[in-house]
Request: fold
Amino acid sequence: MKKRFLPFLVGSLLTFLPVVATPTQRHTLPLTEQEANEKGSLVITHKPIKRVEGFVGESSLVTTLHIKATNITSVVNLELTGADRTNFILEKTTLPLGTWEQDVKVNYKPQKVKSHKATIIIDCPSLPEASTTIAIEGISIDKNNPPTFTVTPQTLETFTCEEKKTITQTINITSQHLAENIQVYPTQKNVFKVSSASIYRNSPGRLVVTFAPLKAGEYKDTIVFHTYGGQDVRIPLVGRATATSQVVEKEGTELVLDTSNPLLVLNETFSNQPKNKPLVLKGWVNNATKGTRAWWGFKTLSYDKTPDEEVAKVTGFDSKVEYGSETPCEMLLVTPALDFKNAASKIFTIRLRGDLLQDNMTDTLRVYYIEKVDNKIEKLPIGGFKIPNTKDESGEWKEYHIDFTDLPLKDVFFIGFGFVGTRGATSSATYFIDDISFGRTDLPVITPSALKFEVTTSLGVQKSFNEIQVTTKNTKEPVKLTLSGRHKSKFKLSATELPKEGGSFSVTFKSNVKGVHFATIKLTSRGAADQYVELVALNGDVTAISDVPTLDLEAVVYDLNGNVVTRTNNNNIDELKAKLQRGIYIVRTKDTTFKVRVN
Reply:
């Protein structure tokens, strides 16, 4: 006889009175005891089933099924189904034919931290109407590794914006050993909104909190973070909404440059500036060239990898701008006048970083040489160093020293920092600059013993490069060593940090892949220009890459990560290098491959 399943009948069995099923349904249920005895019946009862809570490796009772059979002519089969079925145990899986009354215990013995679900199928071939399904579930944690999660920051700044506008703040969440996702909700669900009601378990999460007041006033709420077995976290929220202002004042100062008192030495660290407020520095010009926003002061957050650093900040991001209402913006920050003629040192330094950068973004930051000619301001972009502008470069500080000694500059000049972008909620790029100096004679310096090291080795054989010596001058912090490049996993450094006095380290290489392998070591110490050491390993029977370039054919230019930078058929290598940012590149033509270094 073909099996049939009656879900509506199951609901009646589980919730109300025991129901007797028979092969023929000629009578209104339930049947009398005499009819059940004559026709055969199967009655399944149990208490209401709740989700069982347990620990990994330990057994807990889910429920006890009480099954009563009368004159059935086939065995009763019990089966667990579902992806999590191995975490549940049936005391019995087969019950006999005939007349009997038995209990079947269902246990939960979880194998890992998780919530689990399964279905019990009870099948009686001679009484298909009695076949039924029962849903069960459990959740487990590990006694030795209880669920934990961390919310950063745990205190948010007061949200401040105009009525009918919005402002956001971001919360980062990390978790481990969770059985379920983290549930997130504001207690009042009024003017504060969250970007997600659930944060995935055991992986980094990000929550955006939006303050969206419709009327002016002060608002309070609390965000609750909750997960099974974990300690709830509650973050208080305070928002102040002001009445809509009619006029937006332009930030900063007018673009007026004064050459009357040039500085022999400039050393600006942007200390004691209000956070996210326009910079005000003696002798500096902070100009909103297009739009109303200028450069701001900022202090990196306490959980940043370089916390509590005071810097200058520029960004086009503005959560108050509605989608479709974005506007162009341009901000220019200019140093005081600098005395090129009389300065003891002609070296200009900058420390910069980009956050929330995107590939192919249109927002740009440039550093300019500026001079006054007949009371007109002229500015030229300064080249020779790479301003971060890709997603992979986000969050990385870069230090550059640029020597103007041999350049025909005016006796008095300025340095400008210009940002051009779009102001709105869709523009995320944010730039920080720090440690702007000119004329210093005490600059920290890092000097590696060479800028390129090369080895030739056989497949699968570990080979050491020549020891790399690092000398320093005026450094106040250790020298950090960072390995990068698409083949970096094949190279191993003997150290990741050297003392501020310098020292030496070694590099080993091993790979089973034939070919030329590249990597770059970045050497950094606060205040010193970043230095890069190129590593080349010729693995197997391969020919060394030529250092003598030729561009007789169309060429493709790659960075050391294997990304295509440009294509060219210009046979003048100097013109090609002029188009590239500072770094090391691989140039390939149909007939040859060679390396180009741009300093």
Summary: Residues 1-31 have pLDDT under 50 and may be disordered. The chain is about 5% helix and 45% strand. Helices lie at 7-15, 33-39, 573-578. Residues 7-15 form the longest helix (9 residues).
